[in-house]
Amino acid sequence: MPEQTLKERQAICFLTVFMCGSSIIIGGTTKTGQDSWMCLLVAQLFAVPMLMLYARIMWLFPEKNIYQIAEYVFGKFFGNIITVLFIWYSFHLSAMVLRNFSEFMQLVAMPETPQLALMLINLFTAVYMAKKGVEVMGKWVVVVICVLNVTILSTLFLLYNQVDFTNLMPVLNHSTKEFLECGYSLSSFPFMETIVFLGIADSVRRPNSPFKIYGLSIFFTSVILAVIMLRNIVSLGPAMLKSVYFPSYVSARIIDVSDFLVRIEGSISLNFIITGSTKIALCLLTACRGIAYLFRIDDYRKILLPVALAVTALCVTLYENTMQMMNFIKIYPIYAFPFQVGIPLLIWISGEIRNRGKQADPQGEVKIPSSREKE
Amino acid sequence: MILILIVLYAGVVLFHWVPLVKEKNKKAAWVSAVLTVASFAVLLLSLLDVRLPGPRGPIEFIIHSIFPFTNEG
Predict the structure, then answer these.
(1) Which of A42, A301, A351, B3 minimizes the number of CB atoms within 10 Å of its CB?
(2) Which ipTM value was assigned to this complex?
């Protein structure tokens, strides 16, 4: 049983910052141009049921993480397979976010700096956070969410002389297929990535409600992403939106208040650095906890640094250039489907069956024997 | 950058791995050793401009084979 716990408010902020992560700089989906903000609404159709399913898993198995749940539900052998798959997903996700960060920094600010240096700097920040544990991270995300909102709102108001609301027209100019594709893509990245949070679900104690945590965090993230997407559309226009890799950065770049307040795009970079580091830290924490559970290591901190270095190694081999990175984002929803939908669905169904079989307490919880708890 | 990498890994071995061995924490030491050596090899080779295969290729191949429509556009 971990000593560190997350309060409900911290867990909500944690998930919100995690979901905002790299999406605030990539700017959600841009494929549907001026209708992108509507894809956010379509995304809720896919994301809300899945996030409620994650919450249900947390509710069924209170104060347990996904590794403990998988072993209880599927037994030692299949539980270990699920654990390995989940470790891989967390590991790969942290490498992908790290690469997003290094590509972004190299493209917009430091073209001469080797990407490895940028990766290591960001990674060590994430390692520090993960080493301090969820309680410290819980306090950190509350500060992050304030900085994030202030930055977004300030860029929004400073763009007052650049906005053109006719950029939102024509409305509904795309096919249903395109809307569904973009909606699912947006639900997969970032909403359903919150499956990673189940790796530290044991830090959320009762009576905190996982439904409230997931529900409020998806609401806050949707509002933040909607504001970002609408800001990008009205300031850049659909054509520009489709042609740039980092629309949020470009929209901050065109801020010009009387030739006095210009070139404040660094503020957007700040957002990405702090939310990106937090997202990487959570993925690292989940991967390390999984590896520690798999090999029966008493403390995940003992393997944190080597795992982080392995993430850097994976990150280096992921893509050869930014174009490959952006192309991979297109197939990412299909790649992530087994981890985001398949495994949680299996765990949930098996959990419900076990729950019915065991005639659990009236609240619907499943009691897991604590013989193998080492975390 | 190669020098920085070597210094970094020397630090990791001295301040992270050696204490684990002294603690006689065999499992953690083994996991750390494997990950450290593998990541060092990959990072060193990438700094020497050796092209290494990543997971993107196989993942894309599998997805394009199962779902041919993902190959369009």
Answers:
(1) B3
(2) 0.94
